[in-house]
Each structure stands twice: as structure tokens, then as C-alpha cells.
């Protein structure tokens, strides 16, 4: 679609009609992921034409301009293929950084933090590394939205006596691909008397019972990430996805954390 002017226009026009017919505030593009220089160039062209089209539509209809956002790789380069950062910055109101899926049974033979804010080795993927990369590439912090998961990944340990990060595994556990929602994780912990561990360096959680090991984000990890986003001056945060929450427990916690951080900022400025 993005490689052809005619199909780009068809997509753009139909997306605007869809948004307006449903009373949406805007549109969010999720391309996972442009993986070559040509695709990145097409991505930038699509964003610029999309922005021009929503501006023209708003002008011709006297309606508020639709907001535009995109979900992007956690870093400004996709395995050395650079995003068109200038087009991203000038075309989108914000970008949603998918700072998760760093480790999973489908592509990791060892356990690992699926959504680490910080890397234990200072070399692996992390949310902070991604935020810094995008800002250094030229995207303002105020256009960045930090993403975190309301799900985790479960592995089958090779050795039940080695239940830590980077432990050897024999594949996925609990579900075919190992994915498991936060509500299901809480139930697993209760039903199996699982041991839970919070790692403050990584800002991530894991639990284990027997040979079943799950990496995920619990309340403390999520709240810490929200505070990080606020302290870094980011636009906000998002989660994927709210339906996997446990009776909205995580959602309520992050909302309170964001509001509390705002209140603290106001007080400090006032006095």
C-alpha cells in the first residue's frame, strides 16, 4: 500500500472517512515494521501525505483536524534501518513506542524481561534505550508516548532450580506461544503458590512455580515506568492491552501515579 501513490491515497481517504463516520478524534497507524530503507522511505511519504490530507479535510469542513499517531519500534532504528525521524516528527502528533516483546519463547531460548525499562547488561533492548535513541535522533520528548504490556510470556525452564533471568528453557509454557494476560498471570500465581520477584534494576517482574516461569510487569513496574515517562517529559503512556488487565487494577494504579506526579510537579513549581 505505502509503495504506490494510488493505494496510499485510497488508504488515507478511507481512513479519514472511517474516523469521521465513527466520531473518532484521530487515527493510529501500526506498521510492524518497515524493515528496509525503501520501506522506511515509503513510511515517511505515507505520513507526510496523511498529514496533508487531514489538514485539507479539516480546512474544507471547518472541523477540528484529526489527530495522527503511529505505533513504532521501541528504537529509532529497526535493526540498523533508520526511521524517517523528520517525517515522523513533522507529521504525527505523537508516536507510541512499543517498548515490549524484548524476550519471548518464540524468539528467545532463555528467559528474559519482556519489557525492561533498563537493561541488565546496558547493551540489550530496553525502554530507556529506545526513548534516548528517538530523542537523540531528533524526535522531541513531548511527542513520545511510552508503551508497556498488560501481558507477559511464559517459558518452561530446563532446570526448576534456576528460576532467574537468562535461564535456559525448553520452549513456551501455559499457551502455545507463551503469551499470557496479566489477569491470567495473577490467577496462575494464586493457583500455583508461585514465587514472585520484582527486579528494580530492570524494572520488571517474574514469577515461577515448578518449571513454569513468567516474565511480566506488575504494579510496581508499571508505576515506575509511568513516573519515568513523566520525569522525562514524555507525552504520556499507553498499554497493550487494557482487556488483559486484572479488573482494571493496573490501569487505576498508573492513572493515580501519573496524576500524583503531576501534582508533585505543580507543588515544586509553586514553592
UniProtKB/TrEMBL annotation:
<dbReference type="InterPro" id="IPR017853">
    <property type="entry name" value="GH"/>
</dbReference>
<keyword id="KW-0732">Signal</keyword>
<dbReference type="InterPro" id="IPR050314">
    <property type="entry name" value="Glycosyl_Hydrlase_18"/>
</dbReference>
<dbReference type="GO" id="GO:0005975">
    <property type="term" value="P:carbohydrate metabolic process"/>
</dbReference>
<protein>
    <submittedName>
        <fullName>BnaC03g63440D protein</fullName>
    </submittedName>
</protein>
<dbReference type="GO" id="GO:0005576">
    <property type="term" value="C:extracellular region"/>
</dbReference>
<dbReference type="GO" id="GO:0004568">
    <property type="term" value="F:chitinase activity"/>
</dbReference>
<dbReference type="GO" id="GO:0006032">
    <property type="term" value="P:chitin catabolic process"/>
</dbReference>
<dbReference type="InterPro" id="IPR011583">
    <property type="entry name" value="Chitinase_II/V-like_cat"/>
</dbReference>
<keyword id="KW-0326">Glycosidase</keyword>
<dbReference type="GO" id="GO:0008061">
    <property type="term" value="F:chitin binding"/>
</dbReference>
<feature type="domain" description="GH18">
    <location>
        <begin position="1"/>
        <end position="261"/>
    </location>
</feature>
<keyword id="KW-0325">Glycoprotein</keyword>
<keyword id="KW-0378">Hydrolase</keyword>
<comment type="similarity">
    <text>Belongs to the glycosyl hydrolase 18 family. Chitinase class V subfamily.</text>
</comment>
<dbReference type="Pfam" id="PF00704">
    <property type="entry name" value="Glyco_hydro_18"/>
</dbReference>
<dbReference type="InterPro" id="IPR001223">
    <property type="entry name" value="Glyco_hydro18_cat"/>
</dbReference>
<dbReference type="InterPro" id="IPR029070">
    <property type="entry name" value="Chitinase_insertion_sf"/>
</dbReference>
Amino acid at each position: 500500500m505505502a509503495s504506490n501513490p494510488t493505494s496510499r491515497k485510497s488508504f488515507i481517504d478511507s481512513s479519514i472517512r472511517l474516523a469521521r463516520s465513527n466520531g473518532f478524534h484521530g487515527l493510529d497507524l501500526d506498521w510492524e515494521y518497515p524493515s528496509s530503507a525503501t520501506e522506511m522511505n515509503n513510511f515517511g511519504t505515507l505520513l507526510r501525505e496523511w498529514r496533508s490530507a487531514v489538514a485539507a479535510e479539516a480546512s474544507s469542513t471547518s472541523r477540528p483536524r484529526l489527530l495522527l499517531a503511529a505505533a513504532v519500534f521501541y528504537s529509532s532504528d529497526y535493526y540498523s534501518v533508520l526511521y524517517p525521524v523528520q517525517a515522523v516528527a513533522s507529521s504525527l502528533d505523537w508516536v507510541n513506542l512499543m517498548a515490549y516483546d524484548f524476550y519471548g519463547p518464540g524468539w528467545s531460548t532463555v528467559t528474559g524481561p519482556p519489557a525492561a525499562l533498563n537493561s541488565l547488561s546496558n547493551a540489550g533492548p530496553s525502554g530507556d534505550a529506545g526513548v534516548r535513541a528517538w530523542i537523540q535522533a531528533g524526535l522531541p520528548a513531548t511527542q513520545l508516548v511510552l508503551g508497556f504490556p498488560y501481558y507477559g510470556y511464559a517459558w518452561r525452564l530446563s532446570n526448576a532450580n534456576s528460576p532467574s533471568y537468562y535461564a535456559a528453557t525448553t520452549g513456551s509454557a501455559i499457551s502455545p506461544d507463551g503469551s499470557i494476560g496479566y489477569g491470567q498471570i495473577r490467577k496462575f500465581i494464586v493457583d500455583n503458590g508461585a514465587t514472585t520477584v520484582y527486579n528494580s534494576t530492570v524494572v520488571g517482574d517474574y514469577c515461577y512455580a515448578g518449571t513454569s516461569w513468567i516474565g511480566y510487569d506488575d504494579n510496581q513496574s508499571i508505576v515506575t515506568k509511568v513516573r519515568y515517562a513523566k520525569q522525562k517529559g514524555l507525552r504520556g503512556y499507553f498499554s497493550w492491552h487494557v482487556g488483559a488487565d486484572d479488573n482494571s487494577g493496573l490501569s487505576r494504579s498508573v492513572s493515580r501515579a501519573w496524576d500524583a506526579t503531576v501534582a508533585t510537579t505543580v507543588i515544586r513549581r509553586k514553592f
